[in-house]
Amino acid sequence: MPDAEQSRNVILPDDAVLAIISAAYAVSRKFGLLVEVAAVTGARVSQLARLEVGDLQGDRSDARLMMPSARKGRGRKRIERRPVPIPINLAMVLKQAGGGRASEAPLLIKPNGEPWRHSDHRHPFERAVTRAGLDQDEVTMYALRHSSIVRQLLASTPIRVVATLHDTSVVMIERTYSKYISDHADALSRRALLDTTRIAISSPLKVII
User: Fold this and answer.
1) Is 198 helix (H, G, I), strand (E, B) or coil?
2) How many Cβ atoms from other residues are within 10 Å of residue 140's Cβ?
3) Would you say the pTM of this structure is higher than 0.90?
4) Residue 83 parent element (H or E)
5) Contacts of 198 (CB under 8 A, 6+ apart)
6) Which of 52, 114, 171, 194 has the smallest number of Cβ neighbours within 10 A?
7) What is the pLDDT of residues 135-178, one digit of tens each?
8) Angle 119-164-66 (CA atoms, 0-180°, nearest 5)?
9) Are 67 and 84 within 8 A, CB to CB?
């Protein structure tokens, strides 16, 4: 996960993420949709740019996107697609956005109708972050990815599942988010704590020596 090696892995609370999405829609509807999908899935912009209309499986009760993998790793050329769950309301918006276009056409496009490129999102994202009352020098698009990963960990999603959904490895998750994995482990282990509140103590225990 190349982006995880950055020195600033900014984790945002959900309220801040929602504020950024809202501000992104104020910049433009198509940009807002890009940011919303990024926040929901935690995918890289390079993956989102390769999503095709046919990758949306929005007619299922469990709506999802067939997310293309990133071209990361030495000599990696093959693009694989893995299902990533999305809420039904987002699926409906995406279905409307892709309506009337060929299944192999880009699902997410710029306001001018062209596909998103590597750094096209940078300046509009800075405007959205500023509009949301956050620091544009600190909060980048990668913050949505990091926040998505941590959100899944704190919701007790198994680390291997989190890694698969975010197109990375368990090793990279453990290396980059160890602080949050500790919180995740604490939350899980608390479910198995012995409940001593049910002990009925009627008299002092006799200590046998």
Assistant:
1) helix
2) 19
3) no
4) strand 81-85
5) none
6) 194
7) 999 999 999 999 999 999 888 899 999 999 999 999 999 888 88
8) 65
9) yes
Query: How far is the C-alpha of 154 from the C-alpha of 158, rounded, in Å?
Result: 10
56-57 and 64-68: which strand pairing?
Answer: antiparallel
Alpha helices, DSSP H, located in the chain: 14-27, 29-41, 45-49, 88-98, 122-131, 142-154, 159-165, 170-176, 178-190
| Full strand arrangement of the beta sheet holding 81-85 | 56-57, 64-68, 81-85
Rounded Cα distance between 60 and 139, Å, is 34
Query: CA 51, CA 8: separation in Å to the nearest integer?
Result: 27
Burial class (CB in 10 A: 0-12, 13-18, 19+), 106: buried
- Give 185's contacts (C-beta < 8 A, 6+ positions apart): none
C-alpha span between 198 and 207 (Å, rounded): 21
Give CA–CA dist 202/182, Å, rounded. 39
Provide the angle, in degrees to the nearest 10, between the axes of the packed helices 14-27 and 29-41: 160
DSSP 3-state of 94 = helix
Spatial contact of 43 and 34, defined as CB atoms under 8 Å apart = no
Per-residue pLDDT of 23-64, as tens digits, reads 999 999 999 999 999 999 999 999 999 999 999 999 988 999
* 173 vs 177: CA distance, rounded Å: 6
